[in-house]
């Protein structure tokens, strides 16, 4: 066998390495873009009621996707549909797996075994009406991908820190005036837990959506205009487009010499 020939085992190792790198890049993309993405969400939120006129059951994150698609090229509109599907599936699966005994009472291997078992149960439940469906159709690499995602999402400290940070950064937008009054009376040291309970589950779907977009961008080739990049949260602003508002403009406006007029 020649030195440059690739065996089956070598190809599997390369695929896993590339998959790991893609996941790393997708998470890095999400961490760097999440503040801009939340900004886009709140700029578009007033229009969600119009989007629900044709489908009252749409969630906020589904309305957000529909609003974004109106500004994107057709291939990116399809990408957002796929990302929404993946994010909702991840969220649903995460909730399903969450109904398990506490991790603190188990060894890491025992905890992982419970998660793996719940994934199998979840997939069987999803496909129970498909008489010819088998796990070979799904592919064991997809099961492994879901497994790693859930271990990371539910046990990863960086995920918990990110949700906590988002809760604090965007509390003024998510909390009602009554809740803001409650927030101000919460004791020091308990504020993070209080915020996570109140709005953590509202922010989680936005985070899952952005991570799913990052994963899909890593798996394919996409041409993005400056406007496309703006709406997906990849860049802060488009020079010369005053109608595409940025956080910088808001900060400069409120901190400027005429800020008393705001």
Q: What's the oligomerization state?
A: single chain
Q: Which band does the percent of strand residues land in?
A: under 5%
For the record, the count of structural domains works out to 1
Largest sheet features: none
Order of helices and strands: HHHHHHHHHHHHH
Number of helical runs? 13
Topology summary:
Elements (H helix, E strand, L loop, with lengths): L7 H37 L3 H4 L8 H10 L4 H25 L9 H19 L8 H4 L1 H16 L1 H13 L1 H4 L2 H9 L5 H29 L6 H6 L15 H9 L7
Helix pairs in contact: 1-11, 3-4, 4-7, 4-11, 5-7, 8-11
Textual characterization of the structure:
With 262 residues, the chain is an all-alpha fold. Helices cover 71% and strands 0% of the residues. It has one domain. Helix 3 runs antiparallel to helix 4 (74-98). The chain is globular, with a radius of gyration of 21 Å. It starts with 7 loop residues before the first helix and ends in a 7-residue tail after the last helix.
Keywords:
single chain, 262 residues, mainly alpha, 13 helices, globular
What's the quick description here?
The protein is mainly alpha-helical and 262 residues long. Helices cover 71% and strands 0% of the residues. It is globular, with a radius of gyration of 21 Å.
